[in-house]
Amino acid sequence: MSLYDRTEVVRMEEPGRTEGEGKGGSSGATGIFATMKKNLLPVLTVMAVVGGVSMGFILRTTSSSKWTPREVMYIQFPGDLFLRMLKGLIIPLLVASVTAAIGSLDFSLSKKIGGRAVLYYVSTTLLAVIEGIILVLLIKPGSRVSDVLKEDRKGSVMSRPVTTADTLLDLVRNLFPPNLVQSCIAQQFFEL
């Protein structure tokens, strides 16, 4: 007899609520709001996507002139923060989920799967390194660039004036590292 054989459905009702209320009965608006409250994350995600697409169309149609790189940077800033936060969460979530999955397996099965995973990782890394070396030897990147062009590029580093807003945006951007492990290990020294 398993756990699923003894499962019972227990109906919970809030005090003061009649049975048909909020479930498509007489008050449909209450049912919609209750459903939206239960599914808040998907609803907010869809609203954010619709808002972002709408804002993109509005900004595209209202601008009569071309956007300057600085204006694009200001509009791009919230998206950069969001992507940096997502990138920062990927490694800890993957490590936690893989650790939990392996921990739930029995030892012989996890040993077998772990061995295959290590073999797969080593073989794909080895193939990528060999492929990269072969392509560099065949293509020889940078060999056709003349010495004159190389000298011109050294002196032509484009610089734009740095404003206070650039410094503040960079400070906020660096609060959300894309790789938490690398930011913990890396040592950065700043000259004062």
From TrEMBL:
It is a multi-pass membrane protein. This is Amino acid transporter. Keywords: Glycoprotein, Membrane, Symport, Transmembrane, Transmembrane helix, Transport. The chain crosses the membrane at residues 40-60, 81-105, 117-139. Residues 1-26 are annotated as: Disordered. One of its GO terms (molecular function) is neutral L-amino acid transmembrane transporter activity. It comes from the Eukaryota. GO terms for cellular component: plasma membrane. The keyword Glycoprotein applies. It is found in: Membrane. Its main location: membrane. Residues 1-22 have a biased composition (Basic and acidic residues). Gene3D superfamilies: Sodium:dicarboxylate symporter. The keyword Transmembrane helix applies. Belongs to the dicarboxylate/amino acid:cation symporter (DAACS) (TC 2.A.23) family. It comes from Lygus hesperus (Western plant bug).
